[in-house]
């Protein structure tokens, strides 16, 4: 990647405790930062300046709120899982991101970034995608706001995800195959960054989770904060205690979890992020640098970034967002691991008891809850809120194979 730079210095005091502004360095404890080639530093700095300006501007906030309401379907409901709660002996509440437009929380972030791109005078969105979910979300936001969209995708992923490729193309996006390396997400990331270096004047790089160089991890968390803030208000209105005992979300890069946790980090709620067994960077990773930031990363014995594997394509990522690594270090959040079998079981259980088919990603969070109730880690009578990050229609072919 050429010469690496990263600002050093102490973390911003707010970032140490309360999921605040990580300051100019973009540090969350020892994680985060901006490890990019010298040539990309100005582009990152420009995004940071534009985001700071936009986020302080009531007009920008108002436009975003309007689009999230009249287009994306917010606020999403907080649904009591009535029958499953009774079976488990706890009060289980579901934050329904599966009901947002395009079927997951990803829309919250891409609308925010696409609005920012417009504000910066850019005419094109660049994105990379693995299974295609972030690519579809970006293509959607591009169509909504009249921006061209170019999505980089590994050639192998293109073969495996033909339906999402078609979806992006129907939405007007150009899908560019990346034939280098393992021809998957990591190669698509490198290619998208390379392309950004040469076209930053007219293109905006839209990252899909709380990852990448500063300001992305912070900015994406702020765009996803709406999940946690809505849920906090909905819990305050609906629960005698006002705050659930446990707040649980799945973690791929960690954006739905970060947005959820941001609404509860200043409460007594226990925060739990749940990773896939084959992508559990918070549990099995070591500190390292990946795609422009320092975090916990899955590595082999030689320090090479390892490949992640999961039944849920959205959790198939070898790192986690830097703020999660920090929340884990300071013990404000905990990270757990579940295996594919538990996940499929949890998906079926929710489908049958509540008539809700969750995404396999979201079923990770639920699988941990089922286990924790069984082991007594969640006590009878507790209140548990789970963020259902997305709907499971996309996973039906995988379920069919798994039978
Ligand atoms: C992409 C995706 C995820 C993983 O992304 P995070 O950034 O960890 O939230 C989880 N659930 C669904 C439904 C997704 O599409």
UniProtKB/TrEMBL annotation:
Pathway: Amino-acid biosynthesis; L-tryptophan biosynthesis; L-tryptophan from chorismate: step 5/5
Residue ranges of domain Tryptophan synthase beta chain-like PALP in the record: 72-390
EC number: 4.2.1.20
PROSITE patterns the UniProt entry points to: TRP_SYNTHASE_BETA
Reactions catalysed: (1S,2R)-1-C-(indol-3-yl)glycerol 3-phosphate + L-serine = D-glyceraldehyde 3-phosphate + L-tryptophan + H2O
Pfam short name (any one): PALP
Entry cofactors: pyridoxal 5'-phosphate
Keyword Repeat: no
Entry keyword set: Amino-acid biosynthesis, Aromatic amino acid biosynthesis, Lyase, Pyridoxal phosphate, Tryptophan biosynthesis
CDD domains: Trp-synth_B (cd06446)
Disordered as annotated region, ranges: 1-23
Residues with the N6-(pyridoxal phosphate)lysine modification: 106
InterPro entries in alphabetical order: Trp_synth_b_CS, Trp_synth_beta, Trp_synth_beta/beta-like, TrpB-like_PALP, TrpB-like_PALP_sf
Keyword Lyase: yes
Function: The beta subunit is responsible for the synthesis of L-tryptophan from indole and L-serine.
Family: Belongs to the TrpB family.
Assembly with partners or alone: Tetramer of two alpha and two beta chains.
Name the record gives this protein: Tryptophan synthase beta chain
Organism: Actinocorallia libanotica
């Amino acid at each position: 990647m050429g010469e690496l730079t990263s600002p050093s210095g102490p973390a911003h005091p707010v970032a140490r405790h309360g999921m605040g502004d990580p300051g100019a360095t973009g540090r969350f404890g020892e994680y985060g930062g901006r490890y990019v080639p010298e040539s990309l530093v100005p582009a990152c700095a420009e995004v940071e300046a534009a985001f700071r300006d936009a986020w302080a501007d009531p007009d920008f906030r108002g436009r975003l709120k309007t689009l999230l309401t009249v287009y994306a379907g917010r606020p999403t409901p907080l649904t009591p899982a009535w029958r499953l709660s009774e079976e488990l002996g706890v009060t289980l509440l579901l934050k329904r991101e599966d009901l947002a437009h395009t079927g997951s929380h990803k829309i919250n972030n891409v609308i925010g970034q696409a609005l920012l791109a417009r504000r910066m005078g850019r005419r094109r969105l660049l994105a990379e995608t693995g299974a295609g979910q972030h690519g579809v979300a970006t293509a959607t936001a591009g169509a909504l706001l009249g921006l061209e969209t170019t999505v980089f995708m590994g050639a192998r992923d293109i073969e495996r995800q033909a339906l999402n490729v078609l979806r992006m193309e129907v939405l007007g996006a150009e899908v560019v195959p990346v034939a280098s390396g393992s021809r998957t997400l990591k190669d698509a990331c490198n290619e998208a960054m390379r392309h950004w270096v040469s076209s930053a004047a007219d293109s905006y790089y839209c990252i899909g989770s709380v990852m990448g160089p500063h300001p992305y991890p912070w900015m994406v968390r702020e765009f996803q904060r709406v999940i946690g803030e809505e849920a906090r208000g909905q819990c305050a209105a609906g629960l005698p205690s006002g705050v659930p005992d446990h707040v649980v979300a799945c973690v791929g890069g960690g954006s739905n979890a970060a947005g959820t946790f941001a609404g509860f980090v200043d409460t007594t709620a226990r925060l739990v992020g749940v990773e896939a067994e084959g992508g559990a960077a918070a549990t099995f990773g070591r500190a390292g640098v990946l795609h422009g930031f320092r975090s916990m990363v899955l590595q082999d014995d030689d320090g090479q970034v390892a490949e992640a594997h999961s039944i849920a394509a959205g959790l198939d990522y070898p790192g986690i967002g830097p703020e999660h690594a920090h929340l884990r270090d300071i013990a404000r959040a905990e990270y757990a691991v579940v295996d594919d079998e538990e996940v499929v079981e949890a998906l079926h259980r929710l489908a049958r008891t509540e008539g809700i088919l969750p995404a396999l990603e979201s079923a990770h969070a639920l699988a941990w809850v089922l286990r924790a109730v069984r082991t007594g880690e969640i006590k009878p009578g507790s209140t548990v809120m789970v963020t259902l990050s997305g709907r499971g229609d996309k996973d039906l072919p995988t379920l069919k194979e798994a039978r």
